[in-house]
Design a protein that fits this description.
The chain is an all-alpha fold. It has 16 helices and no strands.
Length: 438
């Protein structure tokens, strides 16, 4: 019996899944070969920027405000810090967007490195010479602007030029720039006392030199892809990422806010805790805080590069974020029960260990779920807001926590630190809701 042709078996057809077109940034990255020492110069620029910012925040702004008018120094610093805080929240996404949109012949990120260096230099000169409060505030705003530009540009360069599986160590090192910068700023203060010129000038010089060197060595050719359209909707989106359309990014933002709230609970009230709870001598407070920075940073440096390399090798980030949050929580609980300064240093080491694990993986995870991979600086700027908001949130909530059961023994620091531990733990658990990355 002959089989009709129509019924004859046919060769199976091969159906190939459509291949996604690479994004402009992906194509741009494929043509880039980061120059030798790229990560070193990236870290140097960020450490310098952090040194200039943190030395101002920890010391030189207070010295200058006191020099202008000792009677109103506290008010001056409060007003200036409040304005600088608002500027930071606005400037992070704004400079990120401007950098993404740049089509300069000098590159996409390089002009902003130069702009940030100029802001630092002018701000430093004004801070040293300020004759009155308005000039003092302007100096503070320029230094803040320099740090914002550095933060956004450095992380954008890292995202532009390194594939996701090679970002672990680089992000760990750049994330540790703030504590390293704080340590440098505090170390500079030891031999110079209250002399403003070297106290302001040395950290600022490191910031300016670091950012200009990065601008010189980075391979940052002109970005030739079409510039995104800018309209009212784009203006709104500059400060907003739709959490429904981009849930993974929203969960990472939430996680970062919770974890940094735990850190802010300790950092923001450390000095008063050492004085009132552990009864340290006020004359030796500066040296004691410097020692906590050294211990904390040492533990962070011990953990971050190794964990960053391990997470790159394994290709997973979320489990490490959860582990980091738990370690941070343990450190905060230990701090809440410290009977003496030695025990408190142990707690600082545990917190530093948790920070090291966290810094090595969390930002890499964030770069893998960006809403617009072609324009990463804006979204990274929004993410950096989660670093700053916790300070304000903790400052608002802390008085109520410190007042719980307060009596002759003083404020209830245990309630504050344990609340920070709970926030950090919640931040680790929230990261499990991120579905689009491992």
């Amino acid at each position: 019996m002959n089989t009709p042709e129509s019924a004859a078996p046919t060769a199976p057809s091969l159906v190939t899944a459509p291949v996604a077109e690479p994004t402009p940034t992906a194509l741009f990255r494929q043509n880039l070969r980061p120059r030798r020492g790229f990560v070193f110069f990236l870290v140097l620029a960020m450490v310098g920027a952090a040194a200039a910012q943190m030395s101002a925040a920890l010391l030189t702004l207070t010295l200058k405000a006191t020099e202008i008018d000792a009677a109103t120094a506290t008010t001056t610093i409060s007003i200036s810090s409040g304005i600088a805080g608002v500027l930071t929240l606005i400037a992070l996404p704004v400079f990120g967007t401007l950098s993404d949109r740049s089509r300069s012949k000098f590159g996409r990120r390089r002009p902003f490195l130069v702009l940030g260096a100029i802001a630092f230099a002018v701000g430093a000169v004004l801070l040293v010479t300020a004759p009155n409060v308005p000039v003092f505030v302007l100096a503070h705003l320029l230094i803040t602007t320099g740090f914002v530009i550095a933060s956004v540009t450095v992380i954008a360069l890292l995202t532009d030029q390194l594939p996701a599986d090679r970002r672990g160590v680089a992000t760990a090192l750049t994330s540790m720039a703030t504590p390293i910068g704080a340590l440098f700023g505090m170390a500079v203060s030891v031999p110079f006392g209250a002399q403003l010129v070297p106290l302001v000038g040395i950290p600022t010089a490191l910031a300016v030199v670091g950012m200009l060197l990065l601008a010189l060595v980075v391979h940052d050719p002109k970005f030739d892809f079409p510039q995104p359209r800018f309209d009212f909707g784009s203006l709104v989106k500059m400060f907003w990422v739709n959490p429904i359309a981009h849930p993974s990014f929203a969960w990472i933002f939430t996680s970062r806010m919770l974890v940094f709230s735990g850190v802010a609970a300790l950092n923001g009230y450390q000095a008063i805790y050492l004085l009132q709870k552990l009864h340290l001598d006020p004359a030796g407070l500066g040296g004691s805080i410097l020692l906590t920075v050294v211990v904390n940073l040492g533990a962070t440096l011990l953990a971050a590069p190794a964990i960053g390399k391990l997470s790159d090798k394994l290709g997973v980030r979320k489990p490490f974020v959860l582990i980091a949050a738990v370690i941070l929580a343990v450190g905060l609980v230990l701090a809440s029960n410290a009977p003496d300064f030695g025990f408190y240093l142990v707690a600082c080491a545990v917190v530093g260990l948790g920070q090291g694990v966290y810094f090595s993986v969390e930002l890499v995870l964030a770069t893998q779920v960006l809403p617009d991979p072609d324009n990463p600086a804006k979204d990274l700027g929004i993410l950096k807001i989660a670093d700053n908001l916790p300070v304000t949130i903790v400052a608002a909530i802390a008085p109520a926590l410190l007042a719980i059961g307060a009596g002759a023994a003083g404020p209830n620091f245990s309630a504050l630190f344990i609340a920070g531990a709970l926030a950090a733990t919640a931040g680790g658990l929230v990261i499990l809701f991120v579905r689009s990355a491992r």
